[in-house]
Amino acid sequence: MSREIDLMILGGGCAGLSLAMRLAKLGPRCPQTLIVESRERYVNDRTWCFWGTPSAQLTSLVRHRWSRVRVSAEGRQREVECASSPYEMIPASVFYEAALREVAANPRIRLTTGTAVSDQPVRTGNRWAIATPFGTHSPRWVVDTRPVRSPRRGDAVLWQSFYGREILCETDRFDAGCATLMDFLPTKDGRIVFVYMLPVTARQALIEITAFAPDPLGPELLGELLDGVLTKSQAISKSETVRVESGSLPMGLSTIAEQTHRNWCRAGLAGGGARPASGFAFQRIQRWADQCAEQLACGHGPCSQSTDPWRLRAMDDLFLRVLRARPEAGPSLFMKLFAMPDSGPMIRFLNDCPRWSDCWRIILALPPGLFLRELLKGLSSRKDLRAQPA
Ligand SMILES: Cc1cc2nc3c(=O)[nH]c(=O)nc-3n(C[C@H](O)[C@H](O)[C@H](O)COP(=O)(O)OP(=O)(O)OC[C@H]3O[C@@H](n4cnc5c(N)ncnc54)[C@H](O)[C@@H]3O)c2cc1C
Fold this sequence. Notes:
Layout: E1 2-3, E2 7-10, H1 14-24, E3 33-36, E4 47-51, E5 64-66, E6 68-73, E7 76-81, E8 87-91, H2 92-104, E9 109-112, E10 122-124, E11 127-132, E12 135-137, E13 141-144, E14 156-168, E15 178-184, E16 192-199, E17 204-213, H3 219-232, H4 234-237, E18 240-253, E19 264-266, H5 282-297, H6 310-325, H7 330-338, H8 344-350, H9 356-365, H10 368-387
Parallel strand pairs: 1-12, 2-3, 2-13, 3-9, 6-15, 13-19
Antiparallel strand pairs: 4-8, 5-8, 6-7, 10-11, 11-12, 14-17, 14-18, 15-16, 16-17
Helix pairs in contact: 1-2, 1-5, 6-10, 8-9
């Protein structure tokens, strides 16, 4: 069976649905689109947070904002007031519900759930052939958001692995106006480990244990670490778990799956959607979805995630290499960033949009010795590589 469609989106998660939401708004100009998603149904499987700067998108879906954020290490604590760019949260269930509603409103888009596509698209003439359990489709364009493979050592400079529980306590326990971004535990076995806590009421919070490490870590190990943290607090240990979430995000992918053809592109995490230094991906994916929908609306092929400016890439690369080489210095580096007298440069840096002056202020806030050493190591290894015979 062969069905002719304009666009096929493989994977209807954050990237696939974000693109579909933009396409749905095109009305009759929307390409005939088929989204093929392997999951049977959508559940509240993750919590997306980002800085609410003026360029942030989908803010009508935000369900909580924090005007203060906190980091702490070795008994020291820094609290940053960020009311002008609050830290904001969209529960995945709210996003999925909105996306599915918008997609269903445009008859030119069809979503098939419970269907996995395991083959790579094959080029036949000026179309692709994609086999699904329900027949072969021949779209003109393909946007592929499927993960390339399971997380593994070597595929990223570091992996950000996390396991979290949304808990409900019997008594008031939290300050719902302040999110704890990083509460560092002692660094062990080359892993930087911290607790991330998002309180949504005085009794309810998402508490996650997160590790930056060369290896991706599974939820079992992280769950044990989280249990250790929670049992220390009597009030929290008596809580009820409402939901759990976990994942491993690449920080500095070694190779980003390239766009191999102008009519087929990778998107989402597999297409370099996550910011190397932070793992933040949600707002980057929204910006890509805008650009890609615009291209498709003009009858051009889909586009992949645009690359970051070189100054941001260079800073991210160096920062990650320092964290990997000197994990024990990690907590104090983050504490220094959050101790900057003005939080603007740090927020813009974490949010992908630093100005030149922000980059300088961040560089000046960090200890130069550590970074120079890694910079020189990086330069000499590149020189060694160039000196090797081909
Ligand atoms: C628990 C969690 C919390 C996160 N929190 C944040 C955050 O706070 N801020 C932030 O910026 N980023 C966050 N991220 C990172 C990032 O924003 C998300 O991972 C985001 O969902 C990535 O979008 P994606 O489309 O690449 O992947 P996904 O959303 O995972 O979408 C990929 C889709 O492809 C489907 N699929 C897989 N294989 C197949 C197949 N063979 N055939 C068909 N379909 C297939 C999957 O079912 C899935 O729906 C978080 C990630 C996780 C896992």
